[in-house]
Design goal:
The chain is α+β, with helices and mostly antiparallel strands. 20% of the residues lie in helices and 33% in strands. It has a domain at 464-724: Rossmann fold.
């Protein structure tokens, strides 16, 4: 009897698996061809033009200012790869001219084509401390005396005075985050040897095979190359996956944040370490843990947030920075979502360990990037409301320097780090700026008199309406959001009696913030403004920008206060503007996708929804995703210890209330928000007779990377809303 039961159960299991695979393949088939245009979108000739315009945006990816503050090395992506430019900052009062700009590529240096792009890529520029050399990554490789593109990135160094280039590494894996040692002798970087994918949870996961959680684990370590001879050492142990690092001022040690593998899951429980770097380890090119142990170096644990007491307990840490005297380490600690999306308070801890000290308690902002200016001052780049803020913290007084107080209604960064800023020794800075009305460009100079360095997008003009910051209070909390007007809208339009549709777009995270940025040809709601919609971007509780208490205000309460904040914003907009309440929609990706799913189970005010990489069932999600460590600080316990706290926030438990037509979009190899979550919600909607469509993008992770998929995703989103709630 037991055997028969087991056979019957096995047959049921196979049937279930077959059914899921059939659904999976059917969903994937939807993206084998371009998205079919809906009747509404097919009749709107603006859409193709809008998509083409968004596809022409050229986005800078990094900027690094020379120590003397006179030259900016910056990169941007072309259809052939990354291109590196060097641009001199014009003296105050003079005009920039194109002769000050040159292209730097290993395969064109020193020949007649200097100043023109080469066939090889160049990215991640980093100046030596004295400015005499520039390190960068390139896919060039020597093939019979001629440099040609390959699939592997390697480290190159350009010597300014000699205009000479040399390759200083021969790597086999993924490399990023170049950083010179303070003495200028070595270059450290993050390295995944023999990598098969990008490190991090946003990238597509590997196809499931082998012993799960044990086989094929790739570890990111710190590599150090001797800048002169090119000898390479892996200086951190393979038992630690390193996320961020920083040199000690004497060039003899590193501070780094790391956790046990797998790295994509354990950033939320990462610890702060230091490690002495023995000079022979670098100059002789030692590899492997055996040689490292032979030389007597191993990491020292400085801070474990899981065991420390006080407000940092159980939270995340990022951006470690040695003080100039090497006696302290500053870092940012707080409740964070994805690694790289940083926000919290600034802490100090002795390099020997001890209790961390919060030096920005109750700060009404979310520091995201820091840099010591001297032993007493820390430069800060932070989220404030829905904008970016630059400040200098005086540690002696605990107050900001009144002479540095720059707030920008923009998104800023210098490289891949959240809100990073490149600093020179002279006080000049470089960064990439963008907003709703300004496309992304590199800017540099004094912080209060920045010059536009790049001119990639000068011909572009916004096709959408103007933006306004919407500030209101809900449940006693200050809430901020951004409202985009329909293109061409004026106050006189309100007098005509015409009503407009509204789309609510919820950011990912939840520990993040929507700051103004120029849209690209991928998922996003800005294009709807160009098509006649109002677009509301709320920053509800749980977001960055209002301080750490505000960021933690939705802990154990997903879909509660945060949803009330969003709906309160919609109420406010309805009272001020001519909104057609029968044509309101909601959309979002990741946490925004979850919120779109949950919102339609709690209210029928939304006429349509598009949920990207959402979450339908927190209980099943806990066992499906590859990043379950992130859930503990947000829910307070595992799903096995407190299932009720997960159940109350799960959209699937309220599915009977849904009436809203919903489009679901997801990558089939998304480890953060696995595709089965979208399958579950789609299946339930279909069973309840609610119009729904599920689109699965093959080979994609949480970040949709293929440009064709990006364009398809945006086209489908536009088509869905135009069909369900078109502008009139």
């Amino acid at each position: 009897m037991d055997v028969l039961k087991r056979r019957s159960s096995f047959r049921l299991f196979l049937a279930a698996v077959t059914a899921v695979l059939c659904l999976h393949l059917a969903a994937i088939a939807q993206v084998a061809q371009p998205a079919p245009a809906s009747t509404a979108s097919a009749a709107d000739p603006r859409i193709a033009s809008l998509l083409d315009s968004l596809g022409r945006v050229r986005t800078p990816t990094s900027s690094a200012i020379s120590p003397d503050g006179n030259t900016v090395a910056w990169t941007f992506h072309t259809e052939h790869g990354s291109e590196l430019h060097l641009t001199r900052i014009a003296p105050a009062g003079s005009a920039q001219n194109s002769a000050q700009d040159r292209v730097l590529s290993p395969d064109t240096i020193g020949d007649a084509t200097r100043g023109k792009p080469g066939a090889c890529t160049a990215s991640h520029p980093a100046w030596s401390p004295d400015g005499s050399q520039l390190a960068f990554l390139s896919n060039c490789s020597d093939n019979g005396g001629k440099l040609q593109p390959t699939a592997q990135q390697n480290l190159f160094v350009w010597t300014v005075s000699a205009n000479a280039m040399k390759q200083v590494s021969h790597l086999h894996g993924e490399v990023s985050s170049l950083q010179w040692s303070p003495d200028g002798k070595s270059i450290a970087f993050l390295y995944v040897e023999n990598a098969t994918r990008e490190a991090g949870a946003l990238a597509a996961t590997k196809p499931w095979s082998g012993v799960i959680g044990e086989d094929n684990i790739e570890v990111q370590q710190v590599g150090v190359a001797d800048a002169d001879r090119g000898n390479l050492s892996i200086v951190t142990p393979q038992i630690l996956h390193v996320y961020e690092f920083f040199w000690r001022p004497d060039s003899k040690a590193l501070a780094f944040i790391a956790a046990n593998p797998p790295g994509e899951n354990n950033w939320w429980i990462a610890k702060l370490y230091t490690e002495e770097i023995i000079e022979a380890l670098v100059t002789e090119g030692w590899m492997g843990s055996a040689s490292r142990n032979m030389l007597g170096t191993k990491p020292k644990l400085v801070l474990d947030p899981q065991t420390t007491s006080g407000p940092l307990h159980g939270l995340q840490i990022a951006v470690p920075r040695f003080s100039p005297d090497g006696k302290q380490i500053a870092f940012i600690g707080g409740l964070m979502s994805d690694q790289g999306s940083t926000g919290g308070d600034i802490y100090l801890i002795p390099t020997t360990g001890g209790d961390p000290k919060d030096v920005t308690p109750n700060r009404p902002a979310s520091p995201a990037y820091i840099a010591w200016l001297d032993d007493h001052d820390i430069g800060i780049s932070e989220h404030v409301g829905g904008g970016s803020h630059l400040a200098v913290l005086d540690l002696a007084t605990g107050k900001d320097d009144p002479d540095v107080n720059i707030t920008l209604p923009e998104t800023i960064h210098a490289d891949d780090d959240s809100m990073s800023v490149s600093l020179s020794k002279t006080g000049n800075i470089a960064l990439i700026r963008q907003s709703f009305d300004r496309p992304p460009e590199v800017w540099a100079g004094p912080s209060d008199n920045l010059q536009q360095i790049s001119h990639l997008n000068d011909a572009l003009q916004p096709a959408w309406g103007r933006a306004e910051s919407i500030d209101y209070t809900n449940d006693g909390l200050p809430i901020q959001g951004w409202l985009l007007y329909p293109a061409g809208w004026t106050p006189a339009d309100a007098a005509t009696g015409k009503k407009y549709p509204l789309i609510v777009s919820v950011h990912g995270g939840p520990s993040s913030a929507l700051t103004p940025r120029w849209p690209s040809a991928t998922y996003g709601a800005v294009p709807f403004s160009a098509l006649g919609y109002f677009v509301f971007y709320p920053n509800p509780r749980g977001s960055f920008g209002q301080g750490e208490r505000f960021t933690q205000a939705n802990v154990k309460n997903f879909g509660g206060g945060d949803l009330r904040d969003i709906l309160a914003g919609v109420d406010r907009i309805e009272k001020r503007f001519p909104i057609d309440k029968s044509r309101e929609g909601i959309t979002g990706w990741s946490y925004g996708g979850y919120m779109s799913m949950f919102a339609v189970t709690q209210t029928t005010r939304f006429r349509a929804a598009v949920a990207g990489a959402g979450l339908a069932n927190w209980q099943s999600y806990y066992g499906q995703n590859s990043i379950d460590q992130w859930m503990l600080p947000f829910f307070g316990a595992s799903v096995y210890d407190d299932p009720a706290i997960y159940a109350k926030s799960s959209p699937i438990n309220f599915i009977k209330s849904v009436k809203t037509p919903t489009l679901l979009l997801v990558g089939d190899r998304d480890g953060e928000c696995p595709a089965p979550q979208s399958f579950e919600f789609w299946h339930a909607l279909r069973a309840e007779g609610v119009p729904a469509q599920l689109v699965v993008y093959p080979g994609e992770g949480h970040h949709i990377a293929d440009p064709a998929h990006q364009r398809d995703l945006l086209r489908r989103t536009i088509g869905w809303f135009q069909a369900e709630m078109p502008p009139k």
